[in-house]
Amino acid sequence: MKFFIDTADLDEIREAASWGVLSGVTTNPSLYAKTGGKLVDFDPHMVKICQICEGLPVSAESTASTTEAMVEEGRRLAALAPNIVVKLPICEASLPATHQLASEGIRVNMTLVFSAPQALLAARAGARYISPFVGRFDDIGDEGLDHLAEVVTAVKNYTYGYWDEEGGPEIITASVRTPHHVTQAALMGADIATVPFGALKKCLKHPLTDQGLASFEADWKKVTQA
Ligand code: G3P
Fold it and tell me: What is the pLDDT of residues 84-101, one digit of tens each?
C-alpha cells in the first residue's frame, strides 16, 4: 500500500517527504484553511506542494458547484503543475465533470465517498482515484472499516476502461485517524492510505520498539563502560 499525506502544511509535507515513504499528497478546503492561507495564495501554495513532491500526485480540491464550473476549475488547477490531481466531491454535477476531465487526460480524485455505489459511479465516470472516508463513520458510531471493505471489493471486481495503464482507479483510504485504520486498509488491499502527519508518526511507533531500544542502550552502556 502507498502512503499519501493528508495535509496542506508545507513543513509537514517536507518532513514526510524526507522520510522517503511518500507517494502523494491530498488537500481539501479545510486543510488549506488550517494553514491560514487565503484565496489569493491558493494556486501558488498548490504549486509549492507540487514542487516539494515533484512527480507525485497532489490533489487540489475544486470548490465549484456546477458541472461547467468544475470542468473550468479542473482545467485551471491541472494547468498549475503536471502532478496536480483535481479533487471533486461525489455528486450529480461532478460525475459529468469527471467524465469530461478524464476524456482530456486530467486525473480526478473523487472525494467524500461513503458507499460502494458512490465509488462504482465514480469509477464508471472516469475517476483516477476514489476516496472513501473511514474516520467520519467512526465519529458517528458506525464502522468506517466495514464500509471501506465494501468499496474495495466492489470497485476491484471490475475494470473501467480509464487509467488502466496506470493501474487506476486506485482507492485512497481517507479520513484516516489511527494505525489500525492503516493496517486494516492494507489487509483489504486498498491501494493508498492518505494519512495526517500525526497519524503517520503514530504508525512509526510501537511501545515494544521503545522498550527494546531502551534495553539495547542500557546493555550497550555496560559494554562501553567495562
Ligand atoms: O482529505 C479528505 C479526508 O482525509 C479528511 O479527513 O479527518 O477530515 O475526516 P477528516
Answer: 999 999 999 999 999 999
CATH of the domain at 119: 3.20.20.70
Query: Band of the pLDDT at 32, cuts 50, 70, 90?
Result: very high
Average pLDDT over residues 194-218: 97
Range of the domain at 107: 2-225
Q: Which of 87, 201, 205, 221 is catalytic?
A: 87
Number of domains present in the structure of the chain: 1
What is the distance in A from the centroid of ligand 1 to the CA of 105? 26
**Vertex 213 angle, CA 209 and 214, to 5°:** 120
Contact 172, 26 (CB under 8 A): yes
pLDDT tops 90 at residue 226: no
